[in-house]
Amino acid sequence: xxxxxxxxxxxxxxxxxxxxxxxxxxxxxxxxxxxxxxxxxxxxxxxxxxxxxxxxxxxxxxxxxxxxxxxxxxxxxxxxxxxxxxxxxxxxxxxxxxxxxxxxxxxxxxxxxxxxxxxxxxxxxxxxxxxxxxxxxxxxxxxxxxxxxxxxxxxxxxxxxxxxxxxxxxxxxxxxxxxxxxxxxxxxxxxxxxxxxxxxxxxxxxxxxxxxxxxxxxxxxxxxxxxxxxxxxxxxxxxxxxxxxxxxxx
Amino acid sequence: xxxxxxxxxxxxxxxxxxxxxxxxxxxxxxxxxxxxxxxxxxxxxxxxxxxxxxxxxxxxxxxxxxxxxxxxxxxxxxxxxxxxxxxxxxxxxxxxxxxxxxxxxxxxxxxxxxxxxxxxxxxxxxxxxxxxxxxxxxxxxxxxxxxxxxxxxxxxxxxxxxxxxxxxxxxxxxxxxxxxxxxxxxxxxxxxxxxxxxxxxxxxxxxxxxxxxxxxxxxxxxxxxxxxxxxxxxxxxxxxxxxxxxxxxxxxxxxxxxxxxxxxxxxxxxxxxxxxxxxxxxxxxxxxxxxxxxxxxxxxxxxxxxxxxxxxxxxxxxxxxxxxxxxxxxxxxxxxxxx
Amino acid sequence: xxxxxxxxxxxxxxxxxxxxxxxxxxxxxxxxxxxxxxxxxxxxxxxxxxxxxxxxxxxxxxxxxxxxxxxxxxxxxxxxxxxxxxxxxxxxxxxxxxxxxxxxxxxxxxxxxxxxxxxxxxxxxxxxxxxxxxxxxxxxxxxxxxxxxxxxxxxxxxxxxxxxxxxxxxxxxxxxxxxxxxxxxxxxxxxxxxxxxxxxxxxxxxxxxxxxxxxxxxxxxxxxxxxxxxxxxxxxxxxxxxxxxxxx
Lengths: 250, 339, 248
Prior knowledge:
Strand content of chain A: 25-35%
Low-confidence stretches of chain B: 26-34
CATH architecture of the largest domain in chain B: 3-Layer(aba) Sandwich
Oligomer: heterotrimer
Structural class of chain B: alpha/beta
Helix content of chain A: 25-40%
CATH topology of chain A: Rossmann fold
Order of helices and strands of chain A: EEEEEHEEHHHEHEHEEH
Mean pLDDT of chain A: 86
């Protein structure tokens, strides 16, 4: 099998076998402490390969819970979460804040790797927050806050970044631009995007894990997205088909 | 007919209730007449040997025999019986002479009806091994260069300053140590003379040091001619003039109580009374304290318990004038009301 | 700020004084129980200068004691901010010691340390330290998840950063607690002086009490009020400066 150059990073060859970047949840069951209701009952799903993937579902179905389990921030569940070729998992969410004692530019610089300056500049320009880099976090709009928070995560060492509503309160055009920038700048990384914007997910994501109610079996369904690399170059019929599949899977 | 009966029944009930009310009212009135009039007596200090006579009078019915009911209330550092009398919270109280003179100087309408301590119990304890003297004058000369314990603002400061002035000792020639609640500086030997109530803490300190094979003695300013009157019984001028009967009954009951308490034959009864109120002091200490108190209340066979020592009061007044604690004399004749 | 605080203190003080005088004249009490205005004024004139120095003496002990308490509370608070065994031990100790009335503990301190400056300082520290410590522990042990999550996830969190985040996020609470404990430091110093020191305004009050001289006590209370107001105003000013700087 001949691999493209950029694919080399996410496949590795051990004893003649190709191992692909993968995160797999197997037979996960979980209920919140001091409650009887199950959030997950024998849930299984997997996301394979780098790229921009999605975790979709209605509110309250446990997207954040599953994301935190994958990130290792939540334990106490039964079943297994296995990862291959993924050493560093980060989980970013839209409720995060920067400390207030310095501007966001300084705060980002203080937490990035020494070689990250070029990347920082590129991200700041692409995300459109250049004018507010000297402002304190509290002075930013909600959309700017989320973009700034995402940038600082992108400057970290990671293999999988879970973005839980990380682009909330950002306008649609900018969101699309940001997602395409991520796909371009981090082709060898894996992103798991949590959003309620079905069209956006159908348009830009590769694998879409649709989370269903615990009373439905199986509790997840896997849909292939359009995985677009440009904003407007898509066939409407295909997009509608993907969205329809998501709706049916939910 | 039925209505008429019902009307008669109601009228009967009303009459019964009215009669019952009148009967209860009269019963209440009769009850009041039968009871003794209670008066409040505020002591100067906590229940200890210094108030043995007050407690004895109460426990052994001396007040009741006079036909009055007395509520004896404990004193303390934050209590001021003169203020309580003026505010109407107490009818009788114990106050030191300087307190009385200061209050009268500020217009407080009070009178002294008895003087409990004929000898001031406020004396200075010292180690006999380190301070020895043949006469009071020698003792005074010995004081030079020594460390004296004083309570700033207290009676002991007034008395010691009087002594130093009287014997021409400048304050610069002695070291003054500001006295605290605890006696550690004296135990440690940092202070040579420590002010104590000779019949109370004095005995405790003496007992403690005796156990450590140390001998102590007490320096009594009275022996050097400084007579500063201590605890006396006060009441308001109004009470004294408008209710002389109650005042006399109270005074008689109180003096009787004190006489009985310090009588040798009643020693065990007095000890028992003290034990009842002062549960923290061991009985052997109480016995020694009572013996010391006896000499302060009735220093000689001829001494009359409760008698007001007018020359001593005059000297006290003069001392306070000299030390500018009061600005003008207070006409003691109007204040002291002996039997 | 100072002007307003002093004005408010004057209002409260003179209302209190007026009430006292009203009681005096209504009940026809002697000057021994409540002194008249002339006596109060004359006493005030005669002891004012001495009492000002006494208040300053008390105030500087209170300020030093307060600073020591703040430093100590932060040091121990940082150690005890985790819900670990040490943390719960520190909290339990703080609660127990706070439950003891300082007037009962003070004589023991005087026996051990004598009646000098150190004892006054220690009692002032003890009175304001424990409430301060409990507040500081409370503030520093409360995670600020929305900020800390990133640093924990990226393994950049250390104790200094954690304390800095939590202190910064609760700067208003901390400045309020510190300003509040200043009053306790002043009260603590006065109590220490009252019980067993030979300097300071608390000692002067004790002496005045021996002499039943309410005029002196009223003068002392007046000066303590002024001194405390000045100190609190200073603290509030520092607190406002810090908060302003934090908000830039």
